[in-house]
Amino acid sequence: MNSCKVFVPYGALGTGISETSFAAGVRMKPDAIACDAGSTDSGPYYLGTGSGKYARDSVKEDLRRMLKAGRRLDIPVLIGSAGTCGTDSGVDGLAEICKEICREEKLSAKLAVIHTQQDAERLKMKYAAGKIHSLEGAPDIDETVFERCVNIVGLAGAEPFQEALEEGADIVLCGRTTDTAIIAALPLMRGCHTAGAWHGAKIAECGALCTTNPSGGGVFLTFDQEGFTIEPTSSDSRCTPYTVSAHMLYENADPYRLREPSGTLDTSRAVYTALDDRRVRVTGSAFTHEPYTVKLEGAALAGYQTVTIVGIRDKRIMGDPERWLNAMKGYVAEKIQKYLIDPEAYDIDFKMYGWNAVSGSAPQKGYLPAEIGLVMAVTAQTQELATRIAKIYNPYLLHFPVNMEEQLPTFAFPFSPAETERGAVYEFMLNHSVEVNEPMELFHREVEVIA
Q: Which residues neighbour 124 within 8 Å (Cβ) at sequence distance 6 or greater?
């Protein structure tokens, strides 16, 4: 029976696990070590700037373990969404870390680097040909959006990894990928159950999140021609039918179906069986092949932002914080209008932590906060304008009363100066799919021998 064993040590490169849990996964003799290095979960800034979310030191520590184990076992190391969002700079930066580690540890390896950043002109041609389609919740676009985006990436499927492996790559670093493609690539090459490969990859994409101890250790997958078996590498963790099946709900609008570039996974008839108190066997899922598409993610400059934070504990305001906030906003808006500032040139967002900043809805009737942390974010066409608006608000954030006939209250700025310039901020502009003629059409692969 065709089989393939994959060790997924981390939910994301840079988040780390204990040496004990990592060593346990290596002792199980995997055929590959695989994990992703990020996603766009953390907002558009990382895609817009092409920068990484996690500390370089943490990423290097995690990657060092993987590379040393991969070379010792003579198995491939597969990483996707390099540099958090998979821009070219993210991939190249991770490749440099790889080379540093190989020099320091005296390792030799064949390194394959796959770039998934997209060319605006090529996408404009696809758009003109009717080959780009919106996904659920996507903004309306026209052909100008591709030029407006600072960075655009396409999510690679399993095929770019497979082509690199066929060329004998020991390390594969890919730009933006589906989280599952990294893990499913080798089992699919080995002739394992197609749906089982995608399903197991989905369950293991975030490492130990599918176990009873989400912060402990990694997970180990054994794929075969009928499905897969999953177990944790940490001794104080278990996989159960509940923890494994529940992960289909994670970041997935449909608890049974998952769209991949090459088709759709259907887990509605999957059977989750506990083999013992640590291992779960999964069979019964199905995969339907469909015309190949690549998801696009793009970020554009939204403006420049200045933030002010103020702490408020005044009992009069605590009785009805929204009434006070609306009164202050109206009062300051009149002042800004006097200065002939174009209202279309800026935007102000207020969040009252301790009231409704997280939920966005009114608190339960009768709720009276002890204190509130008010965060004001001004986004404008220039940094100078954002700070100018924030400074107009400054004295009123510090002293504005519940009504103008009362003595002025005093609140507290935690920082001096009160205004913090955040610089450029970004927004997502693309959540679309593009039709391609073959899986590598939009991607580029380079292979290098590190000696």
A: 143, 146, 147
Question: What pLDDT sits at residue 122?
Answer: 97
Q: Give CA–CA dist 182/77, Å, rounded.
A: 10
Cα four-point dihedral sign 8, 10, 13, 16: negative
Yes or no: say if 239 and 245 are a contact pair by the CB < 8 Å rule.
Answer: no
Report whether 379 contacts 425 (CB < 8 A).
yes
User: What is the predicted pLDDT for the residue at 403?
Assistant: 80
- For residue 40, the model assigns a pLDDT of 86
Q: Is residue 308 within 8 Å of residue 413, measured between CB atoms?
A: yes
Asked if 174 and 160 touch (Cβ cutoff 8 Å), the reply is yes
User: Cis bond leading into 214, ω under 30°?
Assistant: no
77-80/32-36 β-pairing: parallel
- Confidence at residue 442, expressed as pLDDT on a 0 to 100 scale: 97
Strands in 219-223's sheet, in edge-to-edge order, are 271-274, 280-283, 227-232, 219-223, 4-8, 32-36, 77-80, 171-174, 109-115, 444-450
Q: What is the pTM of this model?
A: 0.93
pLDDT at 253: 84
Return d(Cα 358, Cα 338) in angstroms, integer. 33
Q: Which two tokens stand for residue 153?
A: 């990436």
Q: What pLDDT shows up at residue 406?
A: 78
Token pair recorded at residue 223 = 């794929």
pLDDT value at residue 404:
76
Report the chain's terminal Cα–Cα distance, integer Å.
36
Looking up tokens 């002890």 gives 370
Residues of the chain with confidence (pLDDT) below 70: none
Domain extents in the chain = 4-116+155-292+436-450, 301-429
**pLDDT value at position 215?**
85
Task: Name the fold adopted by 301-429.
Answer: Alpha-Beta Plaits (3.30.70)
Helix (H) or strand (E) holding 196: helix 194-204
